[in-house]
Amino acid sequence: MTDEQRPTGTFRTRVEWVDTDASGIYHNSTVTRFVEAAEAALMRERGLDGYFPNAPRVRYEADFLAPLRFGQEATATVRLARVGTASMTWEFEVWGETFAGQPRVLAARGSYVTVHTGAGVARGDEARGATPWPAEWVTALGAECRM
């Protein structure tokens, strides 16, 4: 399966003052927020509204490659890389769009893993171990991604 065929979510936004330090350069944590917004867009598109309360991140890795600045438009893209029995591996990129005469630039890239914990987390139950992804979720995301 090519990257273009994998389930992908995209979030377009502008770096706001709250996203930056006093010099107007984005906080590294802003990448996480942009990436999760792209993931949420994908889940909404696929009708998986119950995903987030049941899929905590258990691993997160990012390379911060270039600064984003206050007022700059940014595009975050998340792509499903692998579906396991109870985990999913995601890859992401965050791009800074053309700004102040500078070309579009890859600001951050990385990957993270989510684990399905089942309905227990949403209900507040104590049993929060990993459980298999619901079959309808795997189907909605494209069973061909299962590895």
From TrEMBL:
The keyword Methyltransferase does not apply. Keywords: Hydrolase. Residues 24-97 form the Thioesterase domain. It comes from the Bacteria. CDD domains: 4HBT (cd00586). Pfam families: 4HBT. Its EC number is 3.1.2.-. GO terms for molecular function: hydrolase activity. Gene3D superfamilies: Hotdog Thioesterase (3.10.129.10). InterPro entries: HotDog_dom_sf (IPR029069), Thioestr_dom (IPR006683). This is Acyl-CoA thioesterase. The lineage of its organism: Bacteria, Bacillati, Actinomycetota, Actinomycetes, Propionibacteriales.
